[in-house]
Specification:
about 325 residues; mainly beta; Methylamine Dehydrogenase, Chain H; four-stranded antiparallel beta sheet; 1 helix; about 0% helix
Length: about 325
């Protein structure tokens, strides 16, 4: 399977929607252009001042979330950039690409810090442990791996998925890693040994994204089966199924006590992860929404084909 095959649903995404609570009352919007091709992934810096976007145009763009201006573009990947993730201290940004590499950047200067030739096929997922010491990657070579962020050496590799691995996430303690992919399973691993701890089954189709909540006790997943599912990370038990999207769900992210999701139905939504109730409809687009991210203070961003950045948290309340 090629990176083009994995990114087929992503290929409709070429812009950003950025929501800022400070402008919620005004309803004003501003257009932001920067990328020359689809945007596949979004990540806020820990302080919420920067937003990183990863694109098919082989660049990671960094945006000032107050002004909406592009601060810099990070260049170095030889192909599509499929995922970005900030280190918890904000001093490093990791990116994963179809060129088989994971790269570390200094977001302050835009300089490249390290390139890890992580896999023999495209890398769709990347994550950084909370202490910043470890990177994790997920690849079309049907494996995931953990790397020393300082040296770039491999710590361990996870083998068990029956197909491409699309996503990887660290639990809060850094001792556990979750992965998911084409085989519709979520697998939980020991981050030090590479041993599989358990497999979570319930989705009826491939799983695009997994995310842990802030304390690592809850895991969420987004699938082509049109559902978001919430799991007990310690036991692997499914806690609830969130059904609201009409079509594949591409991304889930915990933010500010909410669970954000987006999908093929051209919407981005916010949920109460404890009750499973939909809290609000963040955005309704003219095309599929492939990436969503948020901050603890309520800012959110979503990526869409219309190449627009909407400044102002003018989210439509669910049901209205």
């Amino acid at each position: 399977m090629t990176s083009a095959a994995f990114t087929a649903p992503l290929a409709v995404t070429a812009g950003l929607l950025l929501g800022l609570p400070a402008a919620a009352d005004s309803g004003k919007t501003a257009d932001l252009d920067g990328h020359k091709a689809e945007v596949f992934s979004l990540a806020f810096s820990p302080d919420g001042k920067l937003l990183a976007s990863a694109s098919k145009d082989k660049t990671v763009a960094l945006w000032d979330t107050e002004s909406g201006e592009q601060v810099r573009a990070l260049k170095g990947h030889d192909s599509d950039i499929l995922r970005v993730a900030f280190a918890p201290d904000g001093k490093r940004l990791a990116s994963a690409g179809a060129d088989g590499t994971v790269r570390l950047w200094d977001p302050t200067t835009g300089g490249a810090v390290r390139t890890i030739k992580a896999h023999g096929n495209w890398v769709a997922g990347v994550a950084v442990s909370r202490d910043g010491k470890w990177l994790a990657s997920a690849s079309a070579d049907q494996t995931a791996a953990v790397w020393d962020a300082e040296t770039g050496t491999e710590r361990c590799r996870f083998r068990g998925h029956k197909g491409e691995v699309y996503t990887v996430a660290f639990a809060a303690d850094g001792k556990t890693v979750a992965t998911a992919g084409k085989d519709a399973t979520i697998r939980v691993w020991d981050a030090a040994t590479g041993k599989e701890v358990r497999a979570l089954k319930g989705h009826a189709a491939e799983v695009y994204t997994v995310a842990f909540d802030a304390d690592g006790g809850t895991l969420a997943s987004a699938s082509a089966d049109g559902t978001v599912r919430v799991w007990d990370a310690a036991t692997g038990n499914e806690l609830r199924k969130l059904a609201g999207h009409q079509g594949a769900v591409y991304t889930v992210a915990f933010a500010g006590g909410e669970l954000l999701s987006c999908g093929a139905d051209k919407t981005a939504r916010a949920w109460n992860p404890a009750s499973g109730a939909e809290v609000r409809l963040l955005s309704r687009q003219r095309s599929e929404v492939m990436a969503v991210a948020g901050t603890a203070t309520g800012r959110w961003a979503a990526a869409g084909k219309d190449k627009v950045v909407k400044l102002g948290a003018d989210a439509t309340r669910a049901g209205k």
